[in-house]
């Protein structure tokens, strides 16, 4: 029997070495809050590994340490493998004060504007990612899609994006997960402003609307100003927006050192009351020259080395900008949801009052009730039903996608990391009235996960012995 002194010593050691987790991020009105204080995103896009950058704890540790010196409090991750354990990397970033903003889709499950669909196969794959990450307090939020729509003619895909939001919110609630924000990251397309951001947030049924909106904007280039960059127009279109909005990618590169002068506008008096921060594209250097660090010999792993003066330029901007915002208790939201935009000939083509192509409560309930393998259970993707094969590791890389500046296509481009509807993998076949393949998937997942009970018993016995 353990002595009273030994018990006290054990408790003391646990207290000494335990590190308090970051407070979870929540949405109230048009702002983010964490621990009662307004939260502003100061992030970098982080996707060195095409399939999953949150697996290698040695790499995460090296990157997180340098990110702290940059002033980063967030990273955006585009693709992960839900079958593996992410706890080590998530703990490393939590200890560094860094939140993760994670895409739910994969190369094979993204909604594609040319053949829009929201199927059971896609839904099951999304739930696998949600299941694997929902327990981490430093998960800032999920992205339901990234640059799915790139033109007004592609706007008929928007209801499928919103249907995915509705079904994933229903799944989250059915599983009794915490209220994790779910948002969308949009390409900065002039002909879609502000209809897309308004459509995704419109209506009185918040269970069908996004919780935050991200904009991938590369308008502020070189010696631009608040006026010449078009940021003044972005601000005008977003004033009174009822949910948080921030730059989910930014950091135009037209050659030479980047000064990141736009950060002073985003975190300054011009935009701070409306916008909730920015994510700089990107952490590791690739062929597009958007990186803040390099790894040895041009690899996508290794000890990170600062790219100068870009790294210090960004660090200096963030160090000089310290928005305090408002306390959660003092903030009373005053904006109502935007009106759903009306369709126009040759422009926005979606009637916001039309019912969404959701999968339905029965399918969501069945998925929530099924026992699926967690990130701690070793599961061979080849043994799963084909209905969830799209969630297996995918090492494909993406082609470069051009960015918009003002109303014209910019010469600034970026490469792998950001999944665009025009350059990433093909869509998963199916439609809103999908087949019953998810039922077969649930059966397969149930049978595969039964073996985990024995592992759990061994773990409990081990704890009792110790």
TrEMBL record:
Region: Disordered, residue numbers: 390-432
Subcellular location: Cell membrane
Chief place where the protein resides: membrane
TM helices/strands, residue ranges: none
UniProt topology in membrane: Lipid-anchor; GPI-anchor
Alphabetically ordered keywords of this record: Glycoprotein, GPI-anchor, Lipoprotein, Membrane, Signal, Transferase
Keyword Lipoprotein set for record: yes
EC number: 2.4.1.-
Low complexity composition-biased segments: 410-432
GO terms under biological process: fungal-type cell wall (1->3)-beta-D-glucan biosynthetic process; fungal-type cell wall organization
Top-level division of the source organism's lineage: Eukaryota
GO molecular function, one term: 1,3-beta-glucanosyltransferase activity
Biased composition (Polar residues): 390-409
Enzyme class: transferase
Pfam families linked to this entry: Glyco_hydro_72
GO cellular component, one term: plasma membrane
Keyword Transcription applies: no
Residues annotated as signal peptide: 1-21
Family to which this protein belongs: Belongs to the glycosyl hydrolase 72 family.
Cited function: Splits internally a 1,3-beta-glucan molecule and transfers the newly generated reducing end (the donor) to the non-reducing end of another 1,3-beta-glucan molecule (the acceptor) forming a 1,3-beta linkage, resulting in the elongation of 1,3-beta-glucan chains in the cell wall.
Name recorded for this polypeptide: 1,3-beta-glucanosyltransferase
């Amino acid at each position: 029997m353990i002595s009273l002194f030994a018990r006290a010593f054990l408790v003391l050691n646990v207290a000494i070495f335990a590190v308090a987790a970051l407070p979870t991020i929540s949405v109230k009105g048009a702002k983010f809050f964490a621990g009662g204080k307004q939260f502003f995103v100061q992030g970098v896009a982080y996707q060195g590994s095409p399939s999953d950058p949150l697996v290698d704890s040695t790499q995460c540790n090296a990157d997180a340490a340098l990110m702290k010196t940059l002033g980063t409090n967030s990273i955006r991750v585009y693709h992960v493998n839900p079958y593996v354990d992410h706890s080590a990397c998530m703990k490393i970033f939590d200890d560094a004060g860094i939140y993760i903003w994670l895409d739910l889709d994969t190369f094979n499950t993204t909604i594609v504007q040319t053949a829009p669909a929201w199927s059971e196969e896609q839904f099951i794959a999304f739930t696998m990612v949600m299941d694997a990450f929902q327990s981490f307090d430093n998960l800032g939020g999920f992205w339901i899609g990234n640059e799915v729509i790139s033109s007004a003619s592609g706007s008929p895909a928007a209801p499928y994006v919103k249907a995915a939001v509705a079904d994933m919110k229903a799944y989250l609630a059915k599983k009794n997960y915490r209220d994790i924000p779910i948002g969308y990251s949009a390409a900065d397309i002039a002909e879609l402003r502000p209809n897309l951001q308004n459509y995704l947030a419109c209506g009185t049924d918040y269970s069908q609307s996004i919780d935050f909106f991200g904009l991938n904007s590369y308008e502020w280039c070189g010696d631009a100003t608040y006026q010449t960059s078009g940021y003044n127009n972005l601000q005008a279109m977003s004033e009174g927006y009822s949910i948080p909005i921030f730059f989910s990618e930014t950091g135009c590169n037209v050659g030479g050192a980047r000064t990141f002068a736009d950060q002073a506008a985003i975190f300054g008096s011009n935009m701070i009351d409306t916008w909730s921060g920015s994510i700089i594209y990107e952490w590791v250097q690739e062929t597009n020259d958007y990186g803040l660090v390099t790894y040895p010999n041009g690899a996508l792993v290794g000890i990170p080395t600062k790219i100068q003066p870009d790294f210090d330029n960004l660090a200096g901007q963030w160090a000089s900008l310290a928005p305090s915002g408002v306390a959660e208790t003092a903030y009373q939201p005053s904006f109502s949801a935007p009106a759903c935009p009306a369709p126009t000939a040759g422009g926005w083509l979606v009637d916001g009052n039309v019912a969404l192509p959701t999968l339905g409560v029965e399918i969501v309930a069945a998925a929530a009730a099924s026992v699926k393998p967690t990130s701690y259970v070793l599961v061979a993707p080849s043994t799963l039903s084909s209905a969830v094969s799209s969630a297996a590791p995918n090492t494909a890389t993406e082609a470069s996608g051009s960015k918009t500046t003002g109303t014209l296509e910019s010469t600034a481009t970026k490469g792998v990391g950001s999944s665009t509807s025009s350059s990433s993998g093909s869509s998963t076949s199916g439609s809103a009235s999908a087949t019953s393949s998810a039922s077969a998937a649930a059966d397969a997942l149930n049978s595969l996960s039964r073996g985990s009970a024995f592992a759990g018993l061994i773990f409990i016995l081990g704890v009792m012995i110790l």
